[in-house]
Design goal:
nine-stranded parallel β-sheet, 19 strands
């Protein structure tokens, strides 16, 4: 029997019937299931597949067929592997500080925008970008799952394409789920079961790639629609591990962590690292180094060392406090000096403007990220990159100009 083909799209069944193929669908929650989603079916062809529909996936021995577009995807095996060694991240077994950038509404952008932004990211030494899998804002829903946690094929394919492009560039992708709609107070998922299903939908699709991690719950400690208990997190972690045992998992925390929080994330929930959202206050940059050291000390006490990842620091145009260039520089220095494993240059919409412009990474439909940054952001990014480069050289990465 020849190798199976992967077919995605609404017309899968019709094409199989026309071609005389046998189609089998692997249960989504089965440990032995193929890396597919409910919209992806495994097909054993009785006759050769038309060449026009063949494209190469992560595993070149298994052709991927997209009958909705017929567009050829990346024709290469995955080459970027994210890992952890004690309190550090690694890429292809080499220690690296993950200097990153927010790219929330990426799935609303076209590939031309992606390529231009990714070029700028690499020029600046950026090694990871944060993308929301449940992003719906400004009348544009680009979520990869629906409210029942089921695949939305158009956007799930786009997420996979972006992960492929980043893999080939040596970039890491943070894929984030949230139980609350962004910029709103409404619940995103219809039920806890739908939330669990969403995590499995994403993991099943992206399982062949090793350059991404999953944030299971954005700001899960906030007692609103975002809240996810440690017990519930642990249940989702167990479900994901059955499908993808090696996947790195986290859940982000808003504000300072306590010793109980640190133990809850790493021991009770069984997550792989801390994802911290710092308080958006003028005094924060002076506190980051001390807080990082404290988190690591609590880990040593609990005999479980893990990375401290500053996934979402403060940003401009959020509130009354407008961070300066020095605030960003001091916060990054504090993270590095304290022993953090990663830090993100965070941006977002202008909350003081009626149209929320510039929206930066919150809306990428018409303008790419780097053309929406203000003067301070444009000027500080190269300086941030040089701090990272001087503190811990990044393998295979030239210093920024």
């Amino acid at each position: 029997m020849s190798a199976p083909w992967y077919l995605s799209g609404r017309r899968a069944l019709a094409v199989c019937m026309t071609a005389g193929w046998i189609m089998t669908v692997a249960p989504l929650d089965s440990p032995s299931a193929c890396p597919t989603t409910p919209s992806r079916s495994v097909i054993e062809p009785r006759t050769p597949l038309p060449a026009a529909f063949v494209s190469a996936p992560a595993d070149p021995s298994i052709p991927v067929v997209d009958i909705d577009t017929g567009v050829e995807q990346v024709a290469a095996s995955p080459k970027t592997r994210l890992g952890i060694h004690e309190s550090r991240f690694t890429i292809n077994d080499q220690p690296v500080f993950l200097f990153g950038i927010s790219y929330y509404a990426a799935l609303g952008a076209n590939e031309q925008i992606w390529q231009a932004d990714l070029e700028d990211m690499q020029r600046l030494g950026v090694r990871w970008l944060r993308v929301w899998a449940t992003w719906s804002a400004f009348d544009d829903d680009v979520s990869v799952v629906d409210h029942e946690g089921r695949a939305r094929p158009q956007y799930l394919r786009r997420l996979e394409r972006l992960v492929q492009l980043c893999d080939q560039r040596g970039l890491v992708v943070d894929v984030t789920l949230s139980r609350q709609k962004p910029l709103e107070r409404e619940a995103f998922f219809a039920s806890p079961a739908a939330y669990h299903q969403a995590a499995l939908t994403v993991v099943q699709t992206l399982r062949p790639y090793r350059n991404w991690y999953l944030d299971l719950a954005n700001e899960r400690n906030i007692r609103d629609r975002r809240f996810v208990s440690f017990d519930d997190l642990a249940a989702v972690v167990r479900a994901v591990r059955r499908v993808d045992p090696a996947r790195l998992l986290t859940a982000s925390h808003a504000g300072e962590l306590s010793a109980t929080d640190v133990r809850g994330y790493l021991h009770d929930a069984g997550l792989d690292f801390l994802a911290v959202h710092v308080p958006r206050q003028p005094q924060q940059p002076a506190r980051t180094a001390l807080q990082t050291r404290q988190y690591l000390q609590w880990m040593r006490t609990n005999k479980r060392l893990a990375p401290v990842h500053y996934q979402e620091p403060f940003r401009r145009d959020f509130g009354h406090w407008q961070p300066t260039m020095d605030d960003f520089l001091d916060d990054l220095r504090g993270a590095l000096e304290g022993g953090a494993a990663g830090w993100c240059f965070h941006t977002g919409d202008n909350r003081a403007a009626a149209d929320r412009q510039p929206r930066r990474c919150f809306d990428l439909r018409r303008h790419r990220l780097f053309t929406q940054l203000d003067d301070v952001e444009q000027q500080v990014l190269p300086r941030l990159a040089k701090i990272v480069q001087s503190h811990s050289p990044i393998p295979n990465q030239k210093p920024p100009p």
